[in-house]
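Re: weekly structure request thread

Next one in the queue (298 aa):
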Amino acid sequence: MLRIQGTYTALVTPFRDEPARPIDWEAFDSLLEAQVAGGVAGIVPCGTTGESPTLSHEEHAQVVERTVRRVKGRVQVIAGTGSNSTREAIALSQHAAGAGADAVMVVVPYYNRPTQEGLYRHFVEVASNVRVPVVIYNIPARTGIDLAPETFARIAASAPNVVAIKEATGNVLRAQKIVQTMGASVTVLSGDDALTLPMIAVGAQGVISVTSNVLPADTSRATRLALDGRADEARRAHLDLMPVHEAMFLEASPAPVKAALAMRRFTSDVVRSPLVSCTEATRLAIASALEGYARGRS
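Done, posted below.
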């Protein structure tokens, strides 16, 4: 079974600054190579940080295929394949598995607010239609519905290939409860960069990170120190990164992380509507956080 541990980058999808905002494949390839060089454990294309709601089905397929083809097994690929339609989530998951993704990440269905029984049936049906490992993504602030720990336990019991959960509830106690009740049978990953250290302290095995788009080596190092139990070093590394973590969410993600990447000349800061690029005040705050972090490391 796939071992899921460490830092996984919730990869942005670079766009060109043109009326149609097409994908900038040259920038995409450069970003992938920077992630691999930075030592991340894996890449998560087509998550919400990758602006999956505004990708066409064709673009979604191209992003997953290109990621798998480009990384060539050097890091894991966990493809975002969630939808608020069970049938669509199955189709996206089957495509990703066929393209060679190591696992798929399926977000809790958004907007239609299914019951816990509906969530149970949704995830079991998706998982039963693919042979790759499945990571569930719980982010109630964006989906409008919270996957209860008890429901997650039912899903994992019924679908053995559901092996992990990305917990983005902002609640360390939630992660602790899952670890306490389910032990090593599933992996908990932090869905918030700012909570990676405390979540690892209660048993999480890593993070699906936004910050690692910009600082892959530094984010990976902080996660590894925590996983290795080097408490003092891990705390220092985590606290040093906190201003950057916070800056990545000053406005709706992924606008801030794209602004940060633009400052480093990886890509433009273009996002697709209804998102908009960061305000000048936010850009200044992001630049200050990055510069402060660089000074502290020198």
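The beta strands are 6-10, 42-44, 76-80, 103-107, 134-138, 162-167, 187-190, 206-209. The mean pLDDT is 97.
Next request, please.
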